[in-house]
């Protein structure tokens, strides 16, 4: 992409606070964006070939939304965790295996999408994020859901299309969790904690495509309690 085209995008971004450059075959984060660290509220560099997010990302202190879907990122810099105003982070379709240690410092984060990466577990760092609403970890390589998940503040957790065969009973203790998606995993019915049905806030449990028939789920003790929550929630949104 020519310099003049990039310059035009930078000028627009300076006025609007939005820098969007998708599907241009970029192999690196545009260094020129440094000039706009105090202007930018949104950066969208989806569908490129970016392999590294440089440490300078930490300088965009007013950034609210960062979208880097379908790139070639294998890791994220610790500096990303300095973005105290970041509310939306979309990193679907990359090659991420883990999150930076300080990820829990992204205190304003509400929406996190990491679908189609190479995560092997639910990152414990997510448990420190108090404003998290939606977490999408679908299409990863997660095999179990650890005890730390009980601290998660999210309202919706999407774990579809992983390799999950074990779930900690602590998931029932998530204080705000209403929607739990576990479709197309490796769950036996005996591995699904009963307390999800009988003693949690979860009002939508999606478990199609596992190693049991849905009608067997309906026979479990506590299913009627789950259905009460499910119906009440449906009425609320009807």
Question: How is this structure best summarized?
Answer:
The protein is of the alpha/beta class and 238 residues long. The chain has four helices and eleven strands, in the order αββββββββββαβαα. α2 links the parallel β10 and β11.
How would you describe this structure in keywords?
238 residues; alpha/beta; Leucine-rich repeat, LRR (right-handed beta-alpha superhelix); 2 domains; nine-stranded parallel sheet; two-stranded parallel sheet; 16% helix; 13% strand; Leu-rich_rpt_typical-subtyp; LRR_dom_sf
CATH class assignment of the largest domain: Alpha Beta
Largest sheet: 9 strands, parallel
How many separate helices? 4
Look at the helices and sheets and give the structural class: alpha/beta
The H-level CATH homologous superfamily of the largest domain, spelled out, is: Ribonuclease Inhibitor
- Share in helix: 10-25%
Shape descriptor reads elongated
Low confidence ranges: none
Structural domains: how many? 2
Give the strand content: 5-15%
Number of strands: 11
